Amino acid sequence: MENRIAVLSLSGKLPIFGLATATDNSIHVLEVVNLPNGVEELKKFLSECEKRLSSNEVMLFIDDPSGLLNDYGHRVALAGKDDATGEQILGKSMSRYLALSSANAISLPEGAHGFDIPNSAYNIRIRDDGQQYFNVDWPVLKDQALLLLLMIHCGYSQTVLQASFTNQMFAELDKLNENQSESSDPLERMINAIGDYKP
Fold first, then answer.
1. Measured between alpha carbons, how far is 1 from 68 in angstroms, rounded to an integer?
2. What are the pLDDT digits (tens) for 114-143?
3. Burial class of 77 by CB neighbour count within 10 A (0 to 12, 13 to 18, 19+)
4. Exposed (0-12), middle (13-18) or buried (19+): which is 189, by Cβ within 10 Å?
5. Do 46 and 35 form a contact (C-beta atoms < 8 A)?
6. Taking a C-beta distance cutoff of 8 angstroms, is the pair 22, 153 a contact?
7. I need a labelling partner for 129 at 20 to 30 A (CA). Which of 33, 152, 167, 174 fits?
8. Alpha-carbon torsion 65, 69, 70, 76, what sign?
9. How far apart are the first and last CA of the chain?
10. What pLDDT shows up at residue 6?
11. Is 13 helix (H, G, I), strand (E, B) or coil?
12. How far apart are CA 93 and CA 165, in angstroms?
């Protein structure tokens, strides 16, 4: 698995944009840039990079509480719930961050700083139903840490909107039906592969 993602976060003090690749064993943050703090400047930046990202199979996600950038990328928010599972995104991302961090599986650009989430920034609580949740001291987290949590969520929470998920799904379906004549129609490929599947 390899998911290429780009994330723009507007939940911190300043807009921050990053590129990353999530694999089965680790997440690699490739580049992080601070962006100008203005809607028109952000729209111009997104317009210039959206086509280039798409042609390289990089999915663009935007954390924009204002909703002013709804014409770009896919919506994401740490305060929201995962559409597929209904789980709190923050809790899922924090759990994955802790697991990746303890496995030394987070790769950052050389000289990068601000990505650490100190133990003093959160408490793990248990609900009455036994489920854990994270109580986070948001002002302690730097913009880079918020961006990393978003990258972890976007990189490891597959949805049918993600091109990499769709491509991987069709590759698996094609393996089930190697004798099938090639078709460029995804729906036809899926129907044929499912029709020929024998458990």
1. 32
2. 999 999 999 999 989 888 888 889 889 999
3. middle
4. middle
5. no
6. no
7. 152
8. negative
9. 24
10. 96
11. coil
12. 19
Q: What is the pLDDT of residue 48?
A: 92
| Residue 64 amino acid letter | D
Please state, in angstroms and rounded to a whole number, the distance separating the CA atoms of residues 10 and 162.
21
Say what the alpha-carbon torsion angle 11, 32, 153, 91 is, to the nearest 10 degrees: -50
Please name the amino acid found at residue 199: P
Q: Would the CA dihedral through 79, 32, 51, 70 be positive or negative?
A: positive
Contact between residue 18 and residue 147 where contact means Cβ atoms under 8 Å apart = yes
Give the largest Cα separation in the chain, rounded: 58
Tokens, residue 134:
């994270």
- Using the structure block, give the residue that is written with the tokens 């994270």: 134
The Cα 84–Cα 35 span in angstroms is 31
The pair of structure tokens assigned to 56 is: 């390289």
